[in-house]
Amino acid sequence: MADRNLKSTFWSEDYITGITFVLHSISNESLRLKTTLKLISDFDEKVTAPAIRSLADIAKANEVRDSNESLWDKHQRQHIELLNTIAERLGIASHSKLEEACLAPLEALQFEYEEFYRESESILNSNYGHYSKCLSQAKKSQLDYFSRNDSLKQLYLVPMENNSDHDSDENEIEIERLVCTDSGLKFHYTLDKRLMFKSEDELEEFVNTIKDTTVTSRRLIPLPGVNNDYFSCDALFEAIKRVASRLDTSVFNKERIGQSLIDSKIISPYNDVLGAKPVFTSQGYYVWAYERNRKEAHSNETQPAKADGFSGFLRKISGVENSETKITTPVQLLEEQKSLKRLRDVYFDQCQALDYARLQLEVELQKCMAQYESMLNRGFQVVHHVSTQFRLLCSNSMSISTVIEPIDVKKEVEKVYEANHGTVGYYVPQPGVTFVEYDSRGILIAESMFHADLVGAPAAERGAAQVLDVLLKYLRELDSKLVLQAWGTPLDFVRVSNFRRECIAEFSNNRGDHKYSMLNALTRQNRPVADVVGLLRMWLLELPDAVIPMACYEPLCVQDTASALGKAPKEHLANLAALCDHFQWLTRECGTESLANLFFAPADIPLYHLFARNRLRQPLDAVIMSPVVYKILCHERSPKMLETLIGAAHAGKEALGPPVVIARDPLLTPVRSARHLQPNSTFVPRPLKTVSAEASPHRSPSRSRKRISGINLGVQSLASSPGPEENSSELASPEPTPSKMTSTTLNAPSHHTS
């Protein structure tokens, strides 16, 4: 059976909850010590010390100085001797004795707890504040980077092909796919198959040409603020014919081209009605609107620049680029890509800084939990010793017999930890922001290497994630005994975090290639086996949903069969199969007993927790889940079982035949979970048997002469059960349809008693 180590069970999904819980636990222990100190101090100050002084005063005041041997003198001396004896007995629990045996140890421990609380609160809050600041900056840089990529992606009308081609030149662009934003037009801009424009300059030259050659008329009464020169449809197309002589001048084509010019805001109707959609007709009159729109756009560009000079200066010095910059030329696009690269570098640096801030917070929180566990064990021993001494002093002074019961310090410590479980538990990291890779066109090409879902992750040949596949193949080439030892070594947060940041740097340099990034990080220098296994363990811990997903966790707790894994997605099953092959190799090389000791040994992070986690934090599940995960990964029939489940998952249906059952070892099998008997557990109703049961036979009128209601409830007594002949006739007759059954039941006649 797996042992429990609850020392590191103050981890939470947001860190601050775990910090609050551990500080609250330290404060509670300090408060309990104060309560015990006050009780003993009050007993000393209000009971023993005043009693001893009062007895001494009474004895002194009633001292018999005469040498008479009268009866009164004899009784008086006896009374005084009794009072002195009581004072001597109370002196056994005097202030000096209580101070030495009880008060001094408790005061020292209570002072230590207060100092520990102040230091822990200061360090943890400081590190969490720094982590929160880095998290906020990383989220902001991520938002800027993602927004700029979205804007860049909109510059391409046609989706780029070969998005995964990382070696393509970032500066290579296609003019045809750019969007020009000054006039809201997209290029290529096409009026007709003989009127196509690749850039706004070509369009502007065309408009100026036909504008100079179009015959216009002037308003009789000029109006200020509007164009007073107008022209007809025929005059417009005569000018266009001079540019494109072979243009189709049918009425339909004229109105189509004219409507395009209106929609593009190159021309507008002479008598434009506000709120009405302008329509081009061959009989209408029009004015030029293109130049006016360009002037308005130019004024809109220059005016905010003056008003927004100070904010623009702030954006410049803060490194935040303006994501609304309009791009009309290839040179501007290249500048946009350079700006995007700067944002990417800021985003990468912020992610790395966040990872380091997270490391500092986790290391300090881990130290705090370790010191608290040590002080808690020592504190229980000190309190038990002080309580024993206090009871002995009081019983001896009062001549009272008392029974001192021994305590189990380990169980008492577990009670303190169990009070917090459900909200906090074993280690689960929360990086907050992860680095992902985009290409030069603003298209996402690779998710993060760490803290990414298995579903959709880059997979190797057999379906396992590329990161997992590379690490397992690398470990397969090493000494199996060293690998087994590394699995049982405590996780070194500092070395693993440094290794992880190196992998992310390789991921950035390799433009999002998981496989080669991991290979380069492994081969760049000679890595200790513990670091490689530690990185693999951290990768497993950072999965949002564990290799054995949450949907299978509860069924595995209460079922003694691996059929519960049938609920897992095929990606999870493929990665679980790769891990199963790894542990099968370790079992063959190192023996079954070594693997069993590995899974059932107490640890800060139990081995089962790497592969199976539940949203509800219950560290005591280690007793149940450790044997289950051990059997799934190390049993000789597990590879065949997983192969069957993967085949069924690919086929989109459950495997035929009975599920493969892995029997538990009776020596390792814990008591079956009784969580379904607990009052606070979740109730899962079973299907009602009446859903699939046949309808009760209809009551025959001849069987009962008592009046019943017009609705037959279908309740049949034992006395009215049909005979064999009736049963055979019912089985032979076709089964009635639901509609017929309903009408027969509801229309049953009423019978009156005679």
UniProtKB/TrEMBL annotation:
- Report biased composition (Polar residues) as residue ranges: 739-754
Q: Which InterPro entries match?
A: Rho_GTPase_activation_prot
Region ranges (Disordered):
678-754
UniProt-recorded name of the protein: LAFE_0H02080g1_1
Task: Look up and give the organism this protein is from.
Answer: Lachancea fermentati (Zygosaccharomyces fermentati)
